[in-house]
Amino acid sequence: MRPAVFFDRDGVLNEDDGYTFDPNEVRWVDGARQAVKAVNDAGYFAFVVTNQSGIARGFYEERHVRSLHEWMSRELAIVGAHVDAFEFCPHHPEGLIEQYRVLCNCRKPRPGMIKALLERYPVDIGASFMIGDKQSDLAAAQAAGIAAYLFDGANLHAFIAPLLKYQSPGPHRTDTAG
Length: 178
Ligand SMILES: [Mg+2]
Ligand SMILES: [Zn+2]
Known about the structure:
Layout: E1 4-7, H1 32-41, E2 45-51, H2 62-78, E3 85-89, H3 112-120, E4 129-132, H4 135-144, E5 147-150, H5 156-160
């Protein structure tokens, strides 16, 4: 078991310019890529949980979100960082696209995306936390039973570094239990 950091995407990893789906328009938040690397290096899972109601609203499609996340993964790989899983909610109760016009369990502040990840990965819930820029992010984390912090919008690496308290056992630890 390892703890996890759940990142909101828009306003945390990339600047929230409203319904971003084109990689050419993505502006990384200062320190965001370094923050993901720090999370990786500390032995936490790095997850992204993002509401993408732009799909329900007909602004873009699921494939655009997936390809944006692939692009983000390539950008992260340049600095030796990676996201273990991206989860997105395509729904909105007032969406234009009928198949996505539902009151779902995954749209934050509901905890469905976090809970889905907790079912798929061996996560130490007590040492895990969420980073969001809205109260709905914090509410989703709270509903899933994990801690959460409201990002101040400055430098994500500086914000997250003091929160990474988990000590990865690592490959060189001497076991005295013999
Ligand atoms: Mg956000
Ligand atoms: Zn949903």
